[in-house]
Design a protein that fits this description.
The chain has 252 residues and is an alpha+beta fold. The chain is built from six helices and 14 strands. It starts with a helix and ends with a helix.
Length: 252
């Protein structure tokens, strides 16, 4: 009888132990699943910065997919986690979600994943690595918009298109050269668009609109833009003045 009681107690202890282990294992699996979910959905794992002005967002992951909308240079977007490769072009596309909730596909090579947007305060030399001995002959110009992808001491690794460049590039520059102020970034973007206007008169007009915009009045770049306006005005010959010169020559 004594042996029977011991046997029953042993089975009961074993059963309780197995139940507890199963409970702990389930808890562990739940914790791991939650952790992976947070990692996938967390801000640091699925944010990206658009590196091109008017980058297309399409309904399907292909160059000829239906156009839905476009993104602005420096715009912050969210990656949904969906990724695919176009079998024809071999380009990698990712699905993005904009701040207004719209979703679509865009080429990942024009994005800076987990980047922070910034604007160059002044011309900055580009280095291959965070070391003064690795200087290149490339420079970012004042008001260029880039994405900071990593930092090391007083250096930042940046990704973006230089005003003098043709492609999106990566390199290291000094941290002190960058402003992450939203007003500075917006001002830099509008200034870049303004100086690309076809005529000098149109450029002056677009730059003046920036200076007169009260929402941008606190930008570090306002004085530089005013200087640019003065420079353009000193070199600009109004249409009516040109016509007057033509009339004078005709009369002669």
């Amino acid at each position: 009888m004594k042996k029977l009681c011991i046997a029953i107690m042993s089975v009961a202890v074993l059963f309780a132990s197995c139940k507890e282990n199963a409970k702990n294992e389930t808890k562990k699996e739940t914790t791991e699943a939650t952790s992976k979910s947070v990692e996938k959905e967390g801000v640091q794992s699925n944010d990206a910065i658009c590196l091109l002005e008017k980058l297309s967002v399409r309904e399907t992951p292909e160059a000829k997919g239906k156009w839905l909308t476009s993104m602005s240079l420096g715009e912050k977007i969210e990656l949904t986690g969906d990724e695919t490769t176009d079998p024809k072009s071999k380009k990698v596309y990712v699905k993005v979600r904009l701040v207004d909730g719209k979703e679509g596909w865009t080429p990942v090579r024009f994005l800076a994943v987990n980047g922070k947007v910034g604007a160059l305060l002044e011309d900055a030399t580009v280095y291959k690595r965070p070391d003064l001995l690795t200087k290149t002959d490339k420079k970012y110009s004042a008001m260029d918009i880039i994405a900071v992808t990593s930092t090391q001491d007083d250096w930042v690794k940046v990704k973006g298109k230089r005003a003098e460049g043709e492609y999106i590039e990566e390199g290291w520059i000094k941290t002190s050269n960058i402003s992450e102020n939203a007003v500075d970034i917006a001002t830099a973007k509008y200034a870049a668009l303004a100086v690309k206007k076809e005529t000098m008169t149109d450029r002056i007009k677009a730059l003046k609109e920036i200076v007169e915009n009260s929402d941008l009045s606190s930008s570090t770049f306002i004085e530089a833009i005013k200087t640019k306006i003065s420079d353009y005005e000193s070199r600009n010959t109004p249409i009516d003045a040109q016509d007057a010169k033509v009339d004078e020559k005709t009369e002669e």
